[in-house]
Amino acid sequence: MEHMLLLFIFFIPILGLSNGTETEQDFTWHLKKIPQIVRERTFSLDSPKFEAKTKLELNSVCGIECQRKLPVPSLSDLKDLLSYETVFENGTRTLTEVNVLGAVLDPAGNTTTRRSLRKKRQIYGTDSRFSIYDKRFMTNFPFNTAVKVSTGCSGILISPKHVLTAAHCLHNGKDYVKGSKRLRVGLMKTKSRGNGRKRKGAKRSRREVSTAKEDPKVATEQSQQSKGDRKRQRRPGRKQGTSDGMPSFQWTRVKSTHIPKGWFKGVSGDIALDYDYAVLELKRPHKRKYMELGISPTIKMMPGSMIHFSGFDNDRSGQLVYRFCSISDESNDLFYQYCDAEPGSTGSGIYLRLKEPNKKKWKRKIIAVYSGHQWVDINGEQQDYNVAVRITPLKYAQICFWIHGNDGNCTQG
Length: 413
Description:
This protein is α+β, with helices and mostly antiparallel strands and 413 residues long. The chain has one domain: Thrombin, subunit H (Beta Barrel), CATH 2.40.10.10. It is built from eight helices and 17 strands. The strands form two sheets. Strands 4, 5, 12, 13, 14, 15, 16 and 17 form an eight-stranded antiparallel β-sheet that branches. Strands 6-7-8-11-10-9 form a six-stranded antiparallel barrel. A hairpin with a 2-residue loop joins strand 13 and strand 14. Helix 5 crosses helix 6.
């Protein structure tokens, strides 16, 4: 099964070239000029209540038909939608207003490209997901970029200190969710001293004591994992490698969280999936390989129209789950697809491989954030899709600005 997985991961782009209808040059990362996001002013807001319940499935959001009817955002709208809130680890909150320079407004509006429509669920027919059991894969690129968010979602490493995830994992459109005040990110461990075992009655470290006080959920998970290790130690004749497939995590505190104002209120006057993304700044940098951002191409520019992502689905507790599928529909801001996924994978980074300009090398980049299984309005009826938020030039500019603190490194993407 592992060999099949590798074939899919490394050769899908090549298979897309062999249908005789497109050329190799079609599947290239085309550099685009990025608009500028400029900070105008920042002011303090009241601290959030942090009382909202985490809701990983949204109802009555603006869907395919609704997207077509939305007005084209004006420059004033964009400035408002791309302004953002920042919540810090001490619970304080600020609002930063921005200006947008060099944005090209699309007169066509929120058009959609429709392919064959099929009504399917989160998991349908044969489950096509792959659980990554082997730590040789789990702790190496691209799978090592997947992280766990303590509110029950997934995310992806986009810099040595930043994680990209879904906004609704942290905020329900009205308030921040419980647990987001002391937010933590779990990075899969590459090494564990003493195979993660601890002597009976051994003292807990200061960090573990602090974790138990601040985040009982994470502390419980760590405690259960430690107990499981002791049980495995007692069983004679069992292989040392049985922990493969159940990754252990190094939990890191989040220093600050950025969410676009467009998530709180979109052009339609309601929460907008278009802006269902957030960036978490970690308190301490990691030393792992992360995945770069890319501008989301259209379906026609993707080999086989395929996308890929990995996350921590709730029905496969503790396992890293990888999947790939083709996109069914797209709008300017969203992908509609039927990738097999369950809650827990929400917030995963969706990526694909394209050729680097003027090179023979193929490179993976993040092109969207998995928003999850959502009910969308189509011709007055609610239908379910698995939806992803595309990284457009404007969103690229904003996320890049959050990473670097200025637009100097964000001129092309």
